[in-house]
Protein 1
Amino acid sequence: MKMRAAVLDGVGSKFQVRELDLDKPKSKELLVKVAASGLCASDLNAIDGKRKLVPFPAVIGHEAAGVIVELGADTPGFAVGDHVIMSIVPHCDTCDYCKSERPNYCSTAGDAMSVGGLFDGTSRLTHNGEKVNHFLTVASFAEYVVVPASGAVVISKEMPLDRAALISCAVLTGYGAVMNTAKVRPGSRVGVFGCGGVGLNIIQGARLAGATTIIAIDLTEEKLAIARKLGATHTINATSCAPEVEVGKICGGLDYAFEALGRESTIQSAWASVDVDGGLILVGLMKNGATLTLDAGPFVNEQWIKGCYFGSANLKRDVEKLVKSYLDGSLFLDELISERIDLESLDLAFDRLRAGQGARNVLVFD
Ligand SMILES: [Zn+2]
Ligand SMILES: [Zn+2]
């Protein structure tokens, strides 16, 4: 079929809206009409070349929700008309990681992503007969996508699809970092360094986990104001202060410091804010090949550091829980969307993300 998509020809290039050919779904794949796709820092990392995530030319975008229009063979549990969120963690069920119950590290999916394909390594996207690559098996800056069924989760039709899109990456990552990676205990002191799409969801995860002190740290008052709505009890504008000093004044030190930017200086500041027995969770992705220098002194106080990928999420279980939480009013998503945009406005919207303005920009289709 023919459809419109925003194609990126290389690192640093502008988006080109082109009419592409999209092949039919193969076995264990779904054809989905995209309703919404959030603009995430991982998209920006691919555009700016901070991380090497996909060969070009490629259709990027990965935080998506839509409606199934066609089923490939062997797709039990899905029906045409189902609403789904699509994620970057499809799984093959046969590799060593899948068999050891770590499907988020599926090596078949990893291999497919590195060549810009789906699970068989091939692409369903072409432009004038030339291959175009899929980003992280989703490629959702497009009217339609073909995705692995194992990366999709059927959701309630009551759930608005633009807000559902956010669940598929930013919310799962932030909420999961709190609930699954760190397992934050009620009554804890939590600090969140960087209040972008993921950081704001760490804040609301901390609220839902029962943390009693939740400190949001960012450089913009706009994001700190949203952080307060989502559950921050205190905010620190780090433009002209050392956040670790301010954290000390507020609560002595943190039980959990989450870093959501992937910057060495912020990680050092987060590490300096941790109290004895507390930990630093690295949620923000650093540039390929980056190194870190940290004060080793706190290890004697049993302070710890943990990495985090995709909020250690259990895709199906966590998506169902989050949709239910939105519908019962306990998960806040409306506050997270700062702009709804079209395919032609992606460059401008990524400029806003690069500048740290606003919360989430979401590409929406009619
Ligand atoms: Zn993302
Ligand atoms: Zn696998």
Protein 2
Amino acid sequence: MNTNKKMWFKRLFKYLKPYIARFLIAVVFMSAFAGLAASLLVVLKKAIDGIFVNKDFAMLGIAAVSVPVIFALKGLADYGRNYLLNYIGQNVIRDLRMELYEKLISLSHNFYVQNSSAKIMSRVTNDLNALQTAIVKVPASLVKDFLTFCGMLIAAFYLNWKFSLIVFIGFPIAAIPLVMFARKIRKASKQGQKQMAEIYSSLMQMLLGFSVIKAYNTEKHEELKFKEENDKFYDFALRVIRVDSRSSPIMNFLGAVAVAVVLFFGGADVLNGAWTAGAFFAFIAAVGQMYEPVRNFAKVNSQIQSGLASAERIFEVLDEEPAIKDAADAKILKPFEKSVVYKNVSFGYTGDKNILDVFNLTVNRGQSVAFVGHSGSGKTTVAALLLRFYDTLSGSILIDGQDIKEVTLKSLRQQVGIVSQDVVLFDDSIKYNIAYGSFDASEQDIIEAAKNANAHDFISALPDGYDTLVGERGIKLSGGEKQRISIARAILKNPPILILDEATSALDSESEKLVQDAVDKLMKNRTVILIAHRLATVRNADNIIVMDNGRIAETGRHEDLIRMENGIYKNLNELQVL
Ligand SMILES: Nc1ncnc2c1ncn2[C@@H]1O[C@H](COP(=O)(O)OP(=O)(O)OP(=O)(O)O)[C@@H](O)[C@H]1O
Ligand SMILES: [Mg+2]
């Protein structure tokens, strides 16, 4: 094992540690299993010799009672082992799954930009499954199979040391193909594991892009892509099965050869009277029972390897640090009073290009500031920075003079509400979606917020009203309906600072006007950052910022901006009026 793997193993062991007592009990069960299996051979020998050779009737009774008793005890020991190891496995996996979820939910936007959902899904499902299998099977192989093999070997030696020696030497030779098989299986199953992530990814793409696939008639194209991934997985899976199913017949054949050898030489000994018939049969049974443990044992390395590979992928996620987190001495941001200031802010998503370049802006309390400008000019980015979805590269954002990097994320985000450009709804009821984040809101508050967002009428017209389920990502609602629910959510949260990013873009003129009224009302006691393409929406803002290439190109009120010669705003306005 290289040092890396040792490290994974050590870390994994930490998760197993709380269950060490149970593990030791499982070891006792496994030892008992091996001992009982060996003792069965002794009974077998005694029974055959006593009953068939010596015609001892008393033995008949003893055998008739002890065989089922030993089997029952063996079964009990196996039950105990199976239950305890699975108990440990399930517990470790539950702990890890929870920890993974907690980590994933704590990570920042940049992690999700870099890692596809399918890749993440496959770690939480596939890799955890593989690890669980390893946790349950590896100790069983290492302890139960090892002890059973030893028990059989001791019994065999006790029955006939000469033949045992032959078998003992023969076994390592028989194990060679098994070890070779295990290596092949490990490689193919590793590839299969990776391929499963590709299948997830393909499926996820289809689910997300379903409408486009239909509209562009690309079902066949997607099918072929999926087929390729699916067939690749099939190939890896079959490769595993092909190699794995080879080991059984080969072992059985070798076993038969061993039995033949023993039969040939040993049979003569029995006829000579040098060896009893009971010992002979018990010996053959012992040798026969050695194969299964050896077979399992040969696989144990591949199980360890695949478990560790999965553990590595799981720990990789657990080791991710959220890019954005509270500073060690983070303070609570006091209720907003004066101003939001962007001071010399520069920012880029990637190292090579700055989206915002020495950006300066002051928004005073109660003011509404509107952002307009070409698509991609950085408007949403300005909003994302205020919520600390990303940190500025240089410069700082101050709320009431307090750098937002120095306050807790919780207290910051409590004060800022956002209606984002891409509306996010959860697969639950309308009520749940409006109250999301304000879970203690009363029914009355929810309806009030919906009314203010001009959503109450359409919600009431639905058969299930506020209990209507919106479907995944709100698929059962229209674009404008989704937008109004998301506005209601922000209204209910009632934050002092509100960001509306294209919040009314999907509304018809009439609803837009109504929502605009609501927004105007909202703006009264609030500081609002309004992002919009349609200039009609921003006309009443106290200050309009025209963004161009990460910089502020123009700023002022509507009346001032339309008078600027060659101004971007003036141009946009003329285009939109036309
Ligand atoms: N996660 C990201 N990683 C890399 N680049 C990004 C990311 N998000 C946005 N960008 C880039 O940053 C630039 C500004 O994006 P932003 O979303 O702020 O524009 P916008 O002004 O809101 O545009 P629109 O009016 O179309 O909404 C764009 O060029 C975009 O390609
Ligand atoms: Mg945008």
Protein 3
Amino acid sequence: MTDDPKLPRPPRRPRYAGTHPRRFGEKYKELQGDPDAVARVLERGQTPAGRHRSIMLDEILAFLAPEPGAVLLDCTLGYGGHTEALAERVAPGGRVIALDLDRTEMARTLARLDGLPVKGHATNFAGAAKVLELEGASGVDGLLADLGVSSMQLDRPERGFSLKQNGPLDMRMDQTRGKSAAEWLAGRDAASLADALLTLGDEPDAEDVALAITQAFESPSPPRTTRDLVRVVLRAKGLDPKTKQTSAFQAHPAARTFQAIRMAVNRETDNLDALLRVLPALMLPAGRVALLTFHSGEETRVRAALEKGLDSGVWATATLTGAKATLAEIAQNPRSRSARLFTASRAAV
Ligand SMILES: C[S@@+](CC[C@H](N)C(=O)[O-])C[C@H]1O[C@@H](n2cnc3c(N)ncnc32)[C@H](O)[C@@H]1O
């Protein structure tokens, strides 16, 4: 608590009616910038709402070894934790070019990083070569791609990624274009949906879940919200409709379905393939690459691309087995348990 009467008190949370806050903004004290609330959440090994804890930060800094004057590319700015640490190390004289599909979160992050040498571009990392051209950079000394979704995106119910908070079935990282999850699901046939659930989510009950979802979308009242979709998945699995995630270390029964739909809606594998194709051309001689994956499909793609580059000689070194986060980091941040860090360094000439 802030006991010193001379210290400014954090602003009061908006009052809510009833015994349980329902709206996201009312629910989490840490969202109001209360430093004590943030500290308590971190102590519990959880991520404060509206924030993202950067994964394998020390390992990434050690490998990229950014130096003053270097030009770096962070393909996935997110909350900016990695970018911030990199930008502090390339100053003076260097810069971090930072990309993200999510212009809403990018605006918040760039405001937070004001004063550091960071240049943001709200764009897809599949087009990273074009961004470097616009920035007048012939290549970069270091590149990071921390794939997937951020905690802020998962936490904000209005974005439609959340299993826990009810929101519209959206799931787009870039809400200015493309089909929402509801639009993507409507009219999809059960076989193609089952294939997506299996390949993108490793969903063991892919066929049953896909059939239930397609039938729900053909019904007179199709699912409109994340909670509606969770109910359909639980019913397909024969589970109680009130089933909840019991611990941060045990995934919710609908988590794999949500992951697969999110990956399909955002064309995540296509974007990763596009980045991997241009990766060597983005790097200056001896430039270093760090890629954080969160899913077996991503790992397979990254490993294959790095192996090909090792064989052809574009990479001088590359790790083909992704490194895991330490047990201490996993205990602090359960979202790091599925992370695998792949690294490569461009040949010197
Ligand atoms: C795991 S978060 C990055 C977190 C960040 N490293 C940090 O320390 O806060 C991944 C971010 O990548 C973004 N993203 C995912 N796919 C993208 C793509 N194809 N192009 C650009 N950004 C993308 C997401 O919107 C999200 O903000």
